[in-house]
């Protein structure tokens, strides 16, 4: 059994900062890509940032220069540092990762989601 557990969401004023964390746990042999998505009410889920096992990073244009994805490989944890937050960043943020267990099975795993609300 493998799972992702997120933390760090909350309510913040525009211009403020939050740091999201996503920890992978269970019988994990390896982790490939780790990603952050978000979904605002009435909108489709969108990719915010991703980081590969080799450390290659991508940020969506809408968050570039404000958000930073990082990863602690030893702790199987991915972070999303969010600065200069705007009301349009309000959404539920989801962590996603490709996990391989010791039986060789690959899991496309999702966290439970964490709410980020930015007030104007």
Description:
It is built from no helices and 11 strands. Strand 9 and strand 10 form a beta hairpin. By secondary structure, it is an all-beta fold. The strands form 2 sheets. Strands 2, 4, 5, 6, 9, 10 and 11 form a 7-stranded mixed beta sheet that branches. It has a 4-stranded antiparallel beta sheet with strand order 1-3-8-7, with no helix packed on it.
Strand content: over 45%
- H/I helix tally: 0
Low-confidence stretches: none
Structural class, please?
mainly beta
- Rounded mean pLDDT is 95
Shape: elongated
Strand-and-helix sequence, N→C?
EEEEEEEEEEE
Helix content: under 10%
> Rg from C-alpha positions?
14 Å
State the end-to-end distance.
41 Å
Query: How many individual β-strands?
Result: 11
Largest sheet geometry: 7 strands, mixed
Highlighted features:
mainly beta; 0% helix
Write a concise synopsis of the structure shown.
With 120 residues, the chain is mostly beta strands. The protein has strands spanning 2-7, 10-13, 18-26, 28-39, 46-51, 57-59, 67-72, 77-82, 91-101, 106-110, 114-119.
Summarize the helices and strands and which ones pair or pack.
Layout: E1 2-7, E2 10-13, E3 18-26, E4 28-39, E5 46-51, E6 57-59, E7 67-72, E8 77-82, E9 91-101, E10 106-110, E11 114-119
């Amino acid at each position: 059994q493998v799972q992702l557990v997120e933390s760090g969401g909350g309510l913040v004023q525009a211009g403020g900062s939050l740091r999201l964390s996503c920890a992978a746990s269970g019988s994990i042999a390896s982790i490939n890509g780790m990603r952050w998505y978000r979904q605002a009410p009435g909108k489709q889920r969108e990719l915010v940032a991703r980081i590969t096992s080799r450390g290659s990073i991508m940020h969506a244009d809408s968050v570039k220069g404000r958000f930073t994805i990082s990863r602690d490989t030893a702790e199987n944890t991915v972070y999303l540092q969010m600065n200069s937050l705007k009301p349009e960043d309000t959404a539920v943020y989801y962590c996603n990762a490709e996990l391989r267990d010791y039986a060789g099975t690959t899991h496309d795993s999702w966290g439970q989601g964490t709410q980020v609300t930015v007030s104007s």
